[in-house]
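Assess this one:

_____
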Amino acid sequence: MANLLNQYKILVEFLGNILGPDYEIVLQDLSQKSHSIVAIKNGQISGRKPGGPLTTAAFEMISDKVYEKTDFLCNYRGIAQNGHILRSSTMFIKDDGGIPIGLLCINFDDSRYNELHERLLKLIHPEEFITNVSAPSNSLTEIKNNGTGKKISSDITENYAIDVPSLRQKIFEDATAHLTTPIDRLNQNERKEIMIQLNEQGLFQLKGAISFVAKRFSCSPATIYRYLSEITS
């Protein structure tokens, strides 16, 4: 399967050169999720480099087995390290059995065009008009299925971690953002609910996840292993 992915490396370079510096092209190997990026062009857009991990959105897609319904997802929202909103798309690279072995991703940063758009508006409209005009929503909630005309409802937002520790932290923060009780004071059922979310978001596929969560929960790694066994059995 490595040979199949290697054939896409030249496509990364080709698309990056053709589309230009506002398009980030990324090839990811799903067999090594903690170091999945095997090729990237225009990585300055997200701040990532070869050897970087999967994104939270990629873990979600794989966990939900989205690849069984479609060959690609187009035009969902990504958030770069510098805060820029990206238009992101992902194609699943599958083996002969339909199992995904890699991802080819394109992330478009339109910030330069937005700046030009705002400057143009200021030239042709009074400032009061611009202030009062409602901006279109950045939320992309529907994603077209592959050639069927159907749409898949989605609220995917992609965040681009540059390494495994920051990805672990991001997944954990997302899963615990709603909590009003300090994490070290959660009861057993509350911890299991968080564990379910962390597992669904792919945290435990990352190296060091058990000890990371144990430290956050102020418990032993053995307790985390027990929780994990209970929610996956």
Q: What stands out?
A: The longest strand covers residues 85-94.
